[in-house]
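Hallway conversation turned thread

IA: we were arguing at lunch whether anyone had actually written out Porin end to end. Turns out nobody had. So, for the record, here is the sequence (413 residues) and right after it the structure tokens. Reply here if something looks off.
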Amino acid sequence: MHKKYYVTLLISVSLFVPALVHAQIDSTLFRRAENRDSLNNTMNMDAIYNRPMLSAGKLPISVGGYMEANWQHIGQDGVSQGNQFQFRRFTIFMASTISKRIKFMSELEFENGTKEINIEFAALDMEFHPLLNLRGGIILSPIGAFNQNHDGPKWEFTDRPISATQLLPSTWSNAGFGLYGKHYDDDWMFGYEAYVSGGFDQSIINNEQGKTYLAATKSNTDRFELSLTGQPLFSGKLAARNNRIGEIGISYMGGIYNRYVDNGNVIDEKRTLSVYAVDFNTKIPHIKTFITGEWAWIKLMVPESYTQQYGERQQGGFVDIVQPVLQRKILGWPKASLSLACRLEYVDWNVGKLRETGDNIGEDLWSVVGGLSFRPNSETVLRLNYRHQRSRDFFANPPVLLGGFSFGISTYF
């Protein structure tokens, strides 16, 4: 039923969009990203609104979206499945200014064709004051920066960061409510977000991966209407940005993840989960180098009956370095650019030592991804990447080697 509904909605939107013309709902919310310097007055928390949208006249709704398609040839320890072609994402944005200081924004995503259909964001914002705004609906937790600022056309790599998709659950959203606000002071901007929502469940330590794995909870679609713990998940973030220096954010997400009460009877102790993250992005003047990074720490209570295979502590992150090498008119595109890119990644799913021997636990991964990207405009990117990756198992045996090329395209529409 749900898939049929969304497919019908998609067809309706597809027929409707050609009749639209480029415009804006509200210049303080929606703008076209003609070049990255135009986004100096925004922060990561504004990512859901900083997207090109389409509107027509006095119609009450604006529409936009993006798509991603890739080719890959990846091998692991010398064994490859050959050429693989992937249509990873087709995402639709729909927004409306309901009245003065009351706005609605939504993000509907189709992944891997129609294998997965998710409402990643669908929330109503009510502005009482620039420092006090109410948000309610399906919200994106502001943990790190990538979770909110994840649109494919913004990145120079075909794959999302491993730490943001497997250590943290990428595009982690849930039903909830909260407050957010911003303050401007010349070149400085300060922002905060604080939400309560539905949370994680015991699948993070009871899953097919056989390890502590927060992303396993995303497969529980009932989380949008039922919380097994009956306790809210809190997520919050403080961020500061200087137009000449960059932006730094500190965030936290935590709560109880296990069902400890059944029909009023206590059946288990409360087991907590805490996630801390720091993110930073900057642009080096003159050479215009973009640097974006994020690091997260996870700590949770694991039952004593579980083996050390399920880690109580995890950590990981990434750093992206993007260097434009050519910005000029190319093949008729007046503001085209060519860039070199590099991503450094590390994830440790089980921080600690073996109780029996005192040796370090493995279960870690690092990778280096090099890239070349071409942007005919700021909303469309063609990217060629090469990945070199090494991962170790729980017992820190010799690493599994993975490497290969990928090519992809991504664009807003």
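OS: looked through it. The domain at 2-412 is CATH 2.40.160.10 (Porin).
IA: good, adding that to the notes. The first helix runs from residue 2 to 16.
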